[in-house]
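Any chance you could type out a protein's amino acid sequence plus the matching backbone structure tokens because I've never seen that pairing?

——
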Amino acid sequence: MNQYFATCPRGLEALLVNEIKAAGAKDIKPTDGGIGFAGELSVCYSVNLHSRLATRILMQVGRGSYATEEDLYQAAYKLNWPNWFDVKHDFMVKVTGVKCPLKSLEFATLRIKDAVCDKFRQVVDSRPYIDTKTPAVRIHAYLTADNYVYYVDTSGDALYQRGNRKASIEAPLRENLAAGILQLSGWKTGQPLLDPMCGSGTFLLEAAMMALNIAPGLKRNFGFEKLKNFESDTWKKIKNAALKNVKPVSFQKIYGSDNDLRAVRVARQNLSEAGLLEAVQLTQTNITEVIPPADNGVLVANPPYGVRIGEDEELALLYPKMGEALKRKFAGWNTYFLTNDARLPKLMRLTPSKRTPLFNGPLECRLFEIKMVAGSNRKDK
């Protein structure tokens, strides 16, 4: 049994536990920003392939206590890195510290890199190259006040990179966060889903993959394929089973629209390249003019953030109009807005039934749940 740590966007840990359980993991330990678990390699491969919420799956290769950078060097030098990967693969080291007493994490990173290279020199008389952009192998060190854990990354590129979305307009929503919001909304396959501010189509892509039972990692490669303990037969079995479960593409009552024609074109291109265009209906419409596609359903939106000067005022004018349109047309719908603008519900004159803190990358946001009940959400001016 190996020990693993799955990282995820903060706020999605409880949902990630369900995915990890479904993969057959043991000894599941949730913490802030991720889940520790144990399992055979098959569990690791399965979580990498099927998890819609995880960011990376890290495999523990060493742990202990330290006080100085020299301790970290010695601890890394003791590990037999050539057992993990071949000298021909380039690698990088990433160090994360929480309450870490060291003055410079950069220097700690450098010492760990040196230890890995020195170990290779000792064992195979040659050293691997460093590549910080697209390394074949990633080593992670996690440092607390006095303990270290060394991990080898089994994911490679972050898991939210599904290999689907080629084009994007500015500041796209991360795929694993979009999948988490769909799960938090309670949306189920077959139920109408609308994203009236669809941007490059992340919610639409994730929803279509969920509806058609497409494992999110089917179109990409993983870090574990470059490791020496890679079990190719085990991986083939897991991947083939996932391929067999995929449903043929058909319309899934998923609707997307955006006021920006460029966004609609980008979303269409992304859905088309993912082979999912038939599952979704796309239109160019302003959010205040959207007609509900059904009597009830789930509406999800990630409104633009007022990052540039002047946008805050524009948004302050848009929100009340959005609120009016929702009250007028969307009775019977549950709506969900992810934003880092705390003014949104107030300006929309609607009362949220839930506010879930979530992080889109480093940005702290709120997911506001607003249930549209006929005439009862109105706040008196």
In short: The first helix runs from residue 13 to 22. Confidence is low (pLDDT under 50) at residues 376-381. The chain has two domains: 2-153, 175-216+248-371.
